[in-house]
Specification:
about 400 residues; 16 strands
Amino acid sequence: MLSRSCSARKIGPTRIAPRRGVAPTTTAPFERLLQPGKIGSVTTRNRIVKTGASMCYWHSDHVRMSEKAKAYYGAVARGGVGLLIIESPAVDWPHGSRWKERYRIDDDRYIEGMAELAEAIHVHGCPTFVQMWHDGHWQNPLFGAPGLFEGPPIGASPVNLEAIGDFHRDVPRPLSVGEIEEIIDKFASAAVRVQKAGFDGVDVNAASSHLLHNFLSPYWNRREDEYGDSPENRARLVTTIVREVKERCGDDFAVTVLMNGFELGRMVGIADDECLTHPLALEYAKLFEQAGADALQVRSQWLGFHVSGFFPDYLFYPERPSRWIGSRRVQLQGAWCRSECALAAALKKAVEYPGHHSRPTRSRSGGTLSARWSGRLHRNDPAHSGRSRSAEQAGGRPDRRHSPLHRLRYLP
C-alpha cells in the first residue's frame, strides 16, 4: 500500500530459508515494520495491517453487532495490529451482495451496530477503517439457489465469462448513467454512516472483480459514454466516489483505494492487452491520487481464477504446483508469487504521496520493506502482530509457526 504519509504494500505468504553457512536473520531488518505510520490524518500503531477479507461473523438481518464479530475484531486489535480494516458491510442491498452473512450500512439504522464494533476496536487503541465494495456483475445466485434478488446482475456492459473458477457466468444488465450516480451516492452515504459510527476511514475496494473494477477494466467495460472508452472515463466511477466521500466527510477522514495492478487473461485464452494492463493501472493510480485518495493498496486479478490474485497461495502454495487448464497441464512458476511486490514498487514510482521519499529500512536481501498487509493470517491467529513485536523487542527471531515475519517479501 502507498500512503500520503507512508508507503506500503500487500504481501502474501512465502518461505525465507537461511542460505548455507549464513546465520539465521533476526527481526532487526524489520524494525521499520513495527514503527508507527501515517495514512492521511490517521496514525497507525505499526505497519502491520489486517485487510478487509470477509470473516462472515454477522448476518444481513442483524441491526445490532454480533458478539462473535466484536470478539474477533477486538482480539485482532488487542493482538497488536497497526490498522484494522473491517470487511465490507453492504452499501447497496441486495444488488451489491451475494450472501446473507454480511452486515449492512445502506440505512441509518445500522449505525448503532457499527458503533459497537468501532468501540470494541478503539478500546485497544487501534485505528480502524471499513472496506466498501459492490459485487455488481457477479453471477446471481453465486453458489446456489436461491439468490438474494431476481433477475440478472448489474455491470458496466453485457459481458460475461464462462469459467469454472470465476464468478461471471451471467450476462449483466448494463447500468444507466442515472443508476451509476445512485451507486456513487450509496457509497458516499455509507461512508458518512461509517464516520458517524466512529471509524477512522474507509477503504474503497476497486480490485478483485467487483463492480468498480468492472468499470476500470477494458475487457469488461465496453461503454462509449462518460463512464467508458478512455482511462479517465473508466476511472470516473472510482474517482467520483473518492471525491464525494471527501466532500461529505471532510479531508481529515481517510480514504484509501484498493486496486488491481494488472488483470491477466491468458489463463482462459484472453489476450492480456484486452484487460487492465499494468501501464493502465499506473494511470489509474495517478487519477486516484489526484481525486484525493490517502493511500493505495495493490493486488492483481486473474480471469478464470477469481481468488488467485489476492490469495496467491491458492495458486502457488507451497512451491510450484501444476494445474490443468483445459487439456493442457501448466507448470506455474513460483516467481509469480513476487508479482505484487513488483507492482507496489512500480506504483511507488508513479505517484507522489508526501512522505514517499522517507528513508526506508534496508533488509538483508537488499530490498526495502514499508508495511505488511494480511487477512487470513489474522483470522488464524488474531494475536500474531503482537508475537512479531515481542520477538523484535527481545532481539530474536520470531517463531516461524506463528509470526508473519518469516512470510515477508521485499520490494526491489
